[in-house]
Amino acid sequence: MPSPIDETHPSPIDETHPSPIDETRPSPIDETRSSPIVHINGFPGTGKFTIARLIVDKLSAFNAKLVPNRLLIHPADVILPRSSEDYQPLRQALRAAVFETLIKSRDTFDSLYIFTDFQSNDELGRSVVAEYASMAKLRNCAFIPIIISCTKEENLRRLESAERARRNKLTDTSVLSSMRSDCEVHRSEDEPYQMVLNTTNFQPEDAADTISSHIMGVCVGESPVKRSWTNLYS
User: What contacts 114, CB < 8 A, 6 or more positions away?
Assistant: First the structure.
């Protein structure tokens, strides 16, 4: 198991590049556990959705499913303005309905669920991430927080992509600049399977390989470790 990497001193690619992924599903150590919950957190435009789609393909043997944040946000946006005092309670109720199903329905237990999200390190963000962790505990499965980051310059460049515009996602660089100045992305202090990945010099495929390898390690019962990866291709 690799030790955390100092982000200021990138390691050579041959020491850290992930191995090809075996498509044969390994048997988990504890067959009574449900498949993990993966929470990919990062600023808008860091590539969460693109990377998550690739991870789903790579982990098809684990019946991986993607739950992009828009599925939990857009219903609330249709009903209420974000300035409403009822907006966040509605968001929480929508999450609770989904989480209750993931906890109770046996039809979900053999699927690995990947959520994309942006939660900052404030009271609200910490409470939302805690909801995910609590749901995973009640589901009797591993909770795998993945924090995706990149430099501000790269983040602004990615934000203006044509695909984001087609999907009606945030493309206003001034809004993102303000977000990055005013807050930090939430990172857990005590989650054993957390990975922090700086994707500044990554292609989406390479980032997906790295994260998929980490998730597979958790699925087959490797010892828990916090991982902090730097730019493999700098």
Answer: 38, 40, 52, 55, 56, 64, 65, 66, 67
196: its two tokens: 């922090």
Helix (H, G, I), strand (E, B) or coil at 42: coil
User: What's the predicted TM-score (pTM) here?
Assistant: 0.82
Pairing assessment for the beta strands 195-198 and 143-149 based on DSSP bridges: parallel
What whole-number distance in Å separates Cα of residue 179 and Cα of residue 120? 9
Tell me: the pLDDT tens digits for 30-80? 456 899 999 999 999 999 999 999 999 999 999 999 999 999 999 999 999
Q: Contact 126/183 with Cβ under 8 angstroms?
A: no
Q: Per-residue pLDDT tens for 72-91?
A: 999 999 999 999 999 999 99
Structural tokens at position 145: 């927080």
Q: 26 and 219 in contact (C-beta within 8 Å)?
A: yes
How many angstroms separate the Cα of 220 from the Cα of each of 13, 30, 51, 203, 214?
25, 9, 22, 26, 10
Q: DSSP per residue over 102-119, as a string?
A: HHH-GGGTTSEEEEEE--
How far is 230 from 197, CA to CA, in rounded Å? 6
CA atoms of 211 and 148, how far apart (whole Å): 10
